[in-house]
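does this look right to u?? zinc ion version
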Amino acid sequence: MKNDIFVTVRQILDSYLEVNNHRKTPERYAVLKAVYSMKGHFSLKELSHQLEENNFLVSRATLYNTMKLFQELRLVICHRLQGITKYEACYNKDSHCHQICTICGKVVEIEAPNILQALEDTKLKRFRKDGFVLYVYGVCSTCQAKITRKKTLVKRKY
Ligand SMILES: [Zn+2]
Ligand SMILES: [Zn+2]
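got this back:
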């Protein structure tokens, strides 16, 4: 399944580069492969680690520009979570919901079929809907437990 996706996204990049007369540099394909082998949300730094592991060194500028191109091609989405930029491979999954802990920053993808349906049913004027990303902010159970523990400690002191 994952391999099929890679074949498709490769073709998207291929045809874009051909149509626009851009060179098919090995870097672009190496970055694409790394992006689609990452799990979930990742930073540029984590991506560059992955590339290093694949024995591929790409400069920061090339990496940044390549990711920008991938965003235009809708192969990657960029999230700004709690002041940190994270990326995500998004082919076939451009509509989805996240829950984000505002204390530790943990991001989890959640199922929200009602929201998906509601947006599906929403008619937008003079606009072709392509997808959406939703963020639900809150506190995860681990952080909540820490907060509760701290409160009890404070109470005991007095
Ligand atoms: Zn948390
Ligand atoms: Zn996501």
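Helices lie at 2-19, 26-37, 44-53, 60-72, 113-121, 141-157. idk if thats expected tbh
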